[in-house]
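Expect sequence, tokenised fold; for instance:
***
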Amino acid sequence: MKELELKYGCNPNQKPASISVNDGRDLPIEVLGGKPGYINFLDALNAWQLVKELKEATGLPAAASFKHVSPAGAAVGLPLSETDKAIYFVEPDAELTPIACAYIRARGADRLCSYGDWAALSDPCDAATAQYLKNEVSDGIIAPDYTPEALEILRSKKKGKYNIVKIDPTYVPAQQEHKDVFGITFQQGRNNYKIDESLLDNLVTENKDLPDGAKRDMIVALITLKYTQSNSVCYVKDGQAIGVGAGQQSRIHCTRLAGSKADNWYLRQHPKTLALRFVPGIRRPDRDNAIDVYLSDEYEDVLRDGAWQAVFQVRPEPLTAQEKKDWIATQTGVTVGSDAFFPFGDNVERARKSGVSYIVEPGGSIRDDNVIDTANRYNMVMAFTGMRLFHH
């Protein structure tokens, strides 16, 4: 198939719309279910590149959860702990294959932002992954293949309208990219810069103890950033993005946004949060929204009389500001990555408050000495890659 006609572009008034390969080759995708739209394919193709590169760099199955052309989460397929299973709402008897674990962790990084996501898998979708995805609010999925059982499960989602895309994993795009803006064509070479551990050799801090797990997390952060709308900052722990700040004009705002998401991810593991007792039959989005409000400064909106009864069996005790601060202070071993240099040490100061021990960024600021000094103050390990990762 040379061209696929779409219902419309970004908005219903933007017609006609289609996708094709600009060098005349057949499209490398096959639609197995639903009718994906313009934004769906932007998410799908960006997400596919991310998981494909993450699998190549780590050797582990990888998954991403995309919304509006940036990842809400990305992860490799490490096993789930009992706490993971609790905060990601995994059924006790659920089958957990490596690719299923990868998607569950990617989706779980920011369940609020993953609402209505596009899922991407580096490996064929199996029944275990499809079964978990079936119960989530999602717009579609892209993968190199699907088992018959997985395809049957996914085709039953949304009354048969769930978007299912199969992509040729051997497809190699042209080296030049083109984009039209206001009738003017932009052209650039593809960002084929290979991200691997060789980028992590330039350790600029006094502490140079970089364990293998931190190296893996740096790779996860960098590849996630490569497909996140800039400016962007990404916090990672145990092979999983736990906070992504995308599309901010200020670097410190990226760091704060991603850090607040990482804090929220960790607060979901607080004993008070784990002890929340929801009313039977509550919808997953309603439960996720309630947790988000409960952990926010607006917690009274869900705990006031007349409101909590619709969500909880028993009115929870609030999680106080001091309890939040004390809990977040126990977080350690987090990695933060940035798609461009940190211009000031304030980014390091903010990252430290979310348990960051490792930093990976391009370097090159006229204030690199201030950034390095700040990292040294907290005995962090920082790598300069020399590689910027802007993505638009």
User: Anything to note?
Assistant: Residues 190-267+328-384 form a domain with the Cytidine Deaminase; domain 2 fold (CATH 3.40.140.20). The chain has 13 helices and 15 strands.
